[in-house]
């Protein structure tokens, strides 16, 4: 599964946003096994927490920049696992969880703005040395590759405040478990139930509504009764996207209900397991 030589040869520096990324392992274009990671999330996760308190929950969250899993921990989730199609996402998360242990908040914020686009990690050797072995080796062998540069950079609103940073520090004492998988195969890797599954905005890249219904159906056994899947987070759902989710909702109505959470600046499609 983990193959350093493959990683180096399959990494592609994106031109623009992902135009040249190798997509041969990815049905959801344009992300792939070694797509460069995001540095911060571009989703308003606090808005979701304001409506669905994560405290005490068992959560499975898309890794992305690592922010979603880290914020779930900071806001009191009992147990957090993460998944992503890209190994770079796991390494970004490991780097951040190592960094928070040694850095003040202002150092951490400086680190985030410097790390985007970095191709050489020699000046981060203290943090790299504190990371789990596989991530450490990955960084060393990917020297020369901008593995944390998806083109978006730092999103100010996503940065932790003083209180959140303290909570992250208290609640994250080891690397967050990671499942390396395409969302469409995720169910084949799962062995336990979750109260919340956070899918970020991955379905943005899936136009086939039957595939969406199939993926959500496959996750059903791994969601507790009453549990939620945060199906899709976006700025504004367009008409055709809403039609897509109406269709999915109809398909899943024997066991789930779906609804739209809306606050200024963000819309979130939610699925709740009823039986
Ligand atoms: C969709 S992007 C958006 C960024 C996100 N808003 C965040 O908070 O970082 C999030 C992540 O989804 C991952 N991803 C995209 N398609 C995927 C798929 N089919 N299966 C699993 N992960 C996927 C990407 O590798 C990326 O790390």
Question: Can you offer a commentary on this structure?
Answer:
By secondary structure, the chain is α/β, with parallel strands linked by helices. It has 2 domains: 4-180, no CATH class; 183-273, Rossmann fold (3-Layer(aba) Sandwich), CATH 3.40.50. Helices cover 35% and strands 17% of the residues. The chain has helices spanning 4-10, 45-51, 67-74, 87-102, 105-115, 125-129, 133-141, 162-171, 209-219, 239-251; strands at 58-62, 79-84, 178-180, 194-198, 223-234, 256-263, 266-273. It has a 7-stranded mixed β-sheet with strand order 3-2-1-4-5-7-6, sandwiched between helices. The longest helix is centred in the middle third of the chain and has 16 residues, at 87-102. It binds S-adenosylmethionine. S-adenosylmethionine (SAM) binds next to helix 3.
Write the layout of secondary structure elements.
Elements (H helix, E strand, L loop, with lengths): L3 H7 L34 H7 L6 E5 L4 H8 L4 E6 L2 H16 L2 H11 L9 H5 L3 H9 L20 H10 L6 E3 L13 E5 L10 H11 L3 E12 L4 H13 L4 E8 L2 E8 L2
Parallel strand pairs: 1-2, 1-4, 2-3, 4-5
Antiparallel strand pairs: 5-7, 6-7
Helix pairs in contact: 3-8, 4-7, 9-10
The structure holds S-adenosylmethionine (SAM).
Which range does the strand content fall in? 15-25%
Instruction: List each distinct ligand once.
Output: S-adenosylmethionine
Structural class: alpha/beta
Give the low-confidence spans. 15-27
Q: Percent helix among the residues?
A: 25-40%
Shape: globular
For the record, give the distance between the C-alpha atoms at the N and C termini, rounded to a whole number. Answer: 35 Å
How many DSSP H or I helices? 10
Strand order of the largest sheet: 3-2-1-4-5-7-6
Give the count of structural domains.
Answer: 2
**Biggest sheet, open or closed, and with what strands and sense?**
7 strands, mixed
Number of strands: 7
Round the Cα radius of gyration to an integer and report it: 18 Å
Arithmetic mean of pLDDT: 91
Order of helices and strands: HHEHEHHHHHEEHEHEE
């Amino acid at each position: 599964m983990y193959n350093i030589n493959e990683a180096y040869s399959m990494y592609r520096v994106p031109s623009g946003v992902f135009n040249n990324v190798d997509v041969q392992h990815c049905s959801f274009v344009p992300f792939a096994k070694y797509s460069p990671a995001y540095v911060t999330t571009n989703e308003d996760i606090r808005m979701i927490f304001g409506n669905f308190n994560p405290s005490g929950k068992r959560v499975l969250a898309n890794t992305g920049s690592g922010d979603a899993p880290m914020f779930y921990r900071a806001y009191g989730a009992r147990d957090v696992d993460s998944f992503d199609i890209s190994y770079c996402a796991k390494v970004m998360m490991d780097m951040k969880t190592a960094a928070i242990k040694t850095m003040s908040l202002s150092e951490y914020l400086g680190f985030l703005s410097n790390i985007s686009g970095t191709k050489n990690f020699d000046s981060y050797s203290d943090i790299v040395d504190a990371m789990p072995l596989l991530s450490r080796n990955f960084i060393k062998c990917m020297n020369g590759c901008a593995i944390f540069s998806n083109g978006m950079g730092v999103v100010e609103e996503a940065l932790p405040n003083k209180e959140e940073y303290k909570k992250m520090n208290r609640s994250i004492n080891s690397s967050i478990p990671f499942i390396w998988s395409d969302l469409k195969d995720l169910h084949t890797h799962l062995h336990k139930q979750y109260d919340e599954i956070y899918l970020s905005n991955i379905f943005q890249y899936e136009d086939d509504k039957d595939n969406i219904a199939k993926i959500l159906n496959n996750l059903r056994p791994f969601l507790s009764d009453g549990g939620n899947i945060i199906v899709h987070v976006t700025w504004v759902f367009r008409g055709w996207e809403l039609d897509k989710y109406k269709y999915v909702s109809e398909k899943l109505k024997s066991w789930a209900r779906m609804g739209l959470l809306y606050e200024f600046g963000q819309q979130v499609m939610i699925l709740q397991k009823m039986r």
